[in-house]
Amino acid sequence: MKKREFILVASILTTLLMIVGSIQAGNIQTKKPTESLLQTNTVSYQFSQPSVKDNNDFVTLQINEVTNYRNIPGEPILPVVMKTLELPFGTLVNNVRCTITGTHEIQLIKKIAPATKPVPIPTQNQIVQPIENAEIYTKNQFFPDNWYSYRLTGGLNKDNILKTFLTIQVNPARYNPVQDILESIDSITIDITYEQPLHPFSPLSDAYDLVIICYNKYAPLLQPLVAHKNSHGVQTKLVTINDIKDGTYFPVEGRDIQEKIKYFIKNAKETWNITYVMLVGNYVQVPVRYSYLETDKGSAYEELRFASDLYYTDLYNANGSFCSWDTDNDGIYAEWPYPQPPEDKVDLAPDVYVGRLACMFKSEVKTMVDKIITYENTTAGKDWFNRMVVAGGDTYDKSEEGGTNYTEGETVTGKALEIMPQFTPVKLWTSLGNLTTKNIHNEISEGCGFLFFAGHGSPNMWATHNNSDYRNWTGEFSNSDMVKLSNKDMYPILLVGGCHNSEIDVTPINIIRGFLKEKFHYFSTGPNDFGSFWLYNWVPECWSWVFVKARGGTIASIGSCGYGCDQIGDGDHDGIPDCTQYYDGWLELEFFRLYNQQNITILGQTYYQDVTGYINNFPVDTNRYDAKVLETHILLGDPSLKIGGYQ
Fold first, then answer.
1. Are 268 and 242 in contact (CB under 8 A)?
2. With respect to CATH, is domain 379-504+541-597 assigned 1.10.10.10?
3. What are the domain boundaries of the chain?
4. CATH architecture of structural domain 38-195
5. What dihedral angle (degrees, nearest 10) is formed by the CA atoms of 533, 536, 537, 541?
6. Contact predicate 356/213, CB 8 Å
7. Which of 583, 111, 504, 35 is nearest to 308 (CA)?
8. What is the C-alpha separation between 634 and 283, in angstroms, rounded?
9. Distance between CA atoms of 490 and 380, rounded to whole angstroms?
10. pLDDT tens digits for 398-445?
């Protein structure tokens, strides 16, 4: 072959090989220009002028366009606008620019009212006084420092897709407390430049929806539940604690068993794209993580640590890195010493939906497997599901409210009924004279779809008061009352507002520990100096779990394992009871709104989207009480539960 012909043939063959090499699945791949990873988003607001109201010793503000108020204890109550943007998971913010127009100043005749602390439990008729934070009220400068702030978190959106949430807080009014000058603006424009991730989150497969992590001895008893879930299209994987310790599925990572479990969940998310995690075992068998977020240190109601299953839901920081809850690596988790700033960065936004069956014995596992299967298979279309039972009274005395006289338990449960208008309301209220142990028993035994208690609690009891009667309890419903319930196969979902009702780490050993620590003061019944015996943390199992595991009872429970947080009165003077706008009340009502108005009907998704909404509406990174509301609340039940059952 001549040289010229050889070169021609070689060129043709080379070209053909290049074309063939570019063909995949019958398509010729052409390289597209890379899209810019830098994006810009703009948020703009216009505001009317502030309205200043004189309220006794202080003044308060209203601006029509605001969505919320700063409610951090000791800080001035100022209006804010909260806005959350959903960005690709792992997005980084490069630059934020702010432009404001129309600055105005108003000379005030009194100081702006500071927010009060949330009230955890009865305060023995002591008036709750607002206390000014001296670091703010004695400085001759405007507060807050800036017209806006922002924070980034990473979690699941309402479509169960991992996102980075950019939450912007706009402060349309700032306050100089030394000169008593209010500064406001007409408008604000915020330009955010952010960089999308080079490698978006992409699980290796969609193998499973639900992972059940159980105490080893419970695995055989859970097989019928696995089969049931799979039959309804919820692809389920059963894993034991030993499987995690032995590295059966993924390499073992983590410093202790809690972190090993959390890393396993992270690996399961990235490998199988799981959405739900069910922990089966009590607080020792599937160990809880303790949060060291401190509140009210040194007071009668201090709480220096508490169990938090939210630890297992919060896998990632906003940038996609592992969220350890121990950023200073000292073995103390979610550390927020009172009254200092937090020492650990905690993202809080749920990346999976976690629920716990806090079973102590095999018999409880069998009961819960039967209840879940029966509920999901038989509830749909039943008349009993369309009943909603609420119980409440006067949670806080009017002397604590600063001028109002709300019957808080009735107010918040009444608002819940308004959100759920298609449900037949059953009101057990002190004002109606029908809130009794017997009536609670009878109405639950009739069956209902939802059950909502709002009052005071302990691991052994829920109760409340008649309006202005703060000496006598009413509506007591205790652990021993639950065994008498006769609502078999008619199980409601329970929400409870009350302290320590869901304290899953109770144990009879605490009675010995308490006596050794407090001696005979442990049993004190002084009106202002109760001994810890009366906290009932020595009962075998907590109130909420006893309610769930009962053969009647409920199918699931959402409540607090620590002191609850309620805002009482109307501190922002907007005419709306604060018990419905902040802390526990907001969280409880948002659950019903998401279920009924957003049609989110999987229990774990409903509850944890509630948590995400709270994070996006309140300053959980600067107000320890907001963070505590989320860290103390726990879902006892199946997070993949179909509310109302399958059709």
1. no
2. no
3. 1-31, 38-195, 210-288, 379-504+541-597, 507-538
4. Sandwich (2.60)
5. 150
6. no
7. 504
8. 12
9. 11
10. 888 888 999 999 999 999 999 999 999 999 999 999 999 999 999 999
**What pLDDT, in 10s, does the model give residues 458-515?**
999 999 999 989 889 999 999 999 999 999 999 999 999 999 999 999 999 999 999 9
Side-chain half-sphere exposure of 482, counting CA atoms within 13 A: 20
Residues 6+ apart with CB under 8 A from 227: none
Domain 210-288, CATH homologous superfamily name and number? Gingipain r; domain 1 (3.40.50.10390)
B/e letters for 211-230, b = 16+ CB within 10 Å, e = fewer, are bbbbbeebbebbeebbebbe
Q: Which residue has the tokens 């410093």?
A: 255
Which H/E stretch holds residue 49? none
**210-288 shares its CATH topology with 379-504+541-597:** yes
Count of C-beta atoms within a 10 Å radius of residue 611: 25
The dihedral over CA atoms of 392, 386, 629, 326, expressed in degrees to the nearest 10, equals 150
Report the pLDDT value the prediction gives residue 471, as an integer from 0 to 100. 86
pTM to 2 decimal places: 0.92
pLDDT in tens, 116-161: 988 865 444 444 567 899 999 999 999 999 999 999 999 999 999 9
Which pairing describes strands 424-429 and 474-478: parallel, antiparallel, or unpaired? Answer: unpaired
**Averaged pLDDT for residues 318-339:** 97
C-alpha distances (whole Å) from 473 to each of 319, 404, 456, 476, 531 are: 49, 22, 10, 7, 19
By the 10 Å C-beta count (0-12 exposed, 13-18 middle, 19+ buried), 366 is classed as middle
**Could you tell me how far CA 542 lies from the centroid of its own chain?**
20
